[in-house]
Amino acid sequence: GIQVEQSPPDLILQEGANSTLRCNFSDSVNNLQWFHQNPWGQLINLFYIPSGTKQNGRLSATTVATERYSLLYISSSQTTDSGVYFCAVEPRETSGSRLTFGEGTQLTVNP
Amino acid sequence: DGGITQSPKYLFRKEGQNVTLSCEQNLNHDAMYWYRQDPGQGLRLIYYSQIVNDFQKGDIAEGYSVSREKKESFPLTVTSAQKNPTAFYLCASSRTGRSFFGQGTRLTVV
Q1: A61: which of A47, A97, B61, B84 fits an S-S bond (Cβ 3.0–4.6 Å)?
Q2: A94 Cβ contact list (under 8 Å, min separation 6)
Q3: Which residue of B has its CA nearest to A42?
Q4: Residue ranges of chain A whose CB lies within 8 Å of a chain B CB
């Protein structure tokens, strides 16, 4: 099956710093999403971005489908950005949003 | 409010018992999913359903069962055949490619 690798596995920042999280995937996809899991376990959908670039406030994401990677940018980080960030993909040959998740990037933002 | 509601939030099960986790959505989404998350890991797909009265196995379906009798509801039963059921269980629904999750149920075998 498709492989999803996220890097770095852990990231510690000071409040106000910027960061880039990376997601590499091993096959063509028709669905790619970024999620934030807060300390209570809730997953929040950040972006649906199978290709191209999107921005939402301090967050933006870029997926280069031909090169099989996606990047999540966090600018001016805040302590509330702490948590785990997951990339999830659906291979092109499947349907129904059957997502395969990476193992996540654990982000800690210190005050 | 529209959303996905999972209950209970915490569940304790004795070995050999079946337990059922509830998932209800009022988003009018056709597709619903169950995922399992173990500590420090990503989510793995257990079962999914794209339409009422139809569902398919995901990557780790052994020891689990589901039903989809109503569009709004997709309960998951963890059977005694599941050898290591202690985990965090997340229900999701999707529309136009975007997935939305409930708050999860933490199941512990005691």
Answers
A1: A47
A2: none
A3: B103
A4: 1, 4, 31, 33, 35, 40-43, 45, 48, 50, 86, 88, 96-104
Q: Does B60 touch chain A (CB under 8 A)?
A: no
In degrees, to the nearest 5, what angle opens at C-alpha B48 toward C-alphas B12 and B105?
Answer: 20
Pick the residue from chain B with its C-alpha nearest to A89.
B97
**Cβ contact A89:A25 at 8 Å:** yes
Q: How many CB pairs under 8 A join A and B?
A: 60
- pLDDT per position as a tens digit, B3-39: 999 999 999 999 889 999 999 999 999 999 999 999 9
Q: Give tens-digit pLDDT for A14-31.
A: 999 999 999 999 999 999
Q: DSSP string covering A43-109, please?
A: EEEEEE-SSEEEEETTEEEEEEGGGTEEEEEE-S--GGG-EEEEEEEEETT--S---EE---EEEEE
For residue A75, what are its two tokens?
């600018």
For the stretch B51-99, pLDDT in tens is 999 999 999 999 999 999 999 999 999 998 888 999 999 999 998 889 9
